Known about the structure:
By secondary structure, this protein is an alpha/beta fold. It has ten helices and six strands; from the N terminus they run βαααααβαβααβαββα. It is 48% helix and 11% strand. The protein has a six-stranded parallel β-sheet with strand order 3-2-1-4-5-6, sandwiched between helices. The radius of gyration is 18 Å and the shape is globular. The protein starts with 7 loop residues before the first strand and ends with a helix.
Amino acid sequence: MRFVDFDALSFDCYGTLIDWEAGISAVLDPWAAQAGCELSSEQLLLVYSSHEAAVEAEHGDWLYPRVLAGAMRRSGAQLGIAVDDEDAAAFGRSVPNWPAFEDSSAALTELAKYFRLIALSNIDRVSFAASNNLLGVTFDAVITAEDLGSYKPDPRNFKALMERSAELKVPPGKLLHVAQSLFHDHVPAKQIGLPTVWINRRHGKPGWGATPDPGAPVRPDWEFTSLADFAEAVRGKATD
Length: 240
């Protein structure tokens, strides 16, 4: 397979384009420190990750701000730290403040020269719109958890991606999925035969951070440590 063989790219957003770990830590770190908790940012992300995934699996119909609030409450229960209503609500409202990775906007602009772009995101429409303002690119299609009533890695989300891709007249085999999370994206994408690019944003860091262990062996077709490197590789192949 070559990059020029594809017509469209589908993207995970949070963790791949938006630095969700920085956004999560900006809220959880001071909350935990105020309670006298001495866990590091990485340790707090590890605690949080399993709770968010569990809330999403149990409550696919919840909007993402409510998922965040619920996951924070469960994290607090595990750590023995109180989470009042304002703590939970503030965390739920925090997504518009989560920063984009420095390379996301420019890389997406470059990739849009060669491919149609589809977003497949574990988010609600309002929160995604705020993040998309930071990315500065127009996606040809946006599919959110709010639209589907389920969260990745639910196979329903990838079925919807394939259906939307077909509606955009992307030929079979011409869609490439780009994501950071092996758990949320690469495992279910490979299960339906989608080729994938792993943007390994956590290269050089131990563990999985805010993303749960994938729980199954998975081999992405390509791996890059940044979206900028992926865009440069595409540009190079397109101009060969």
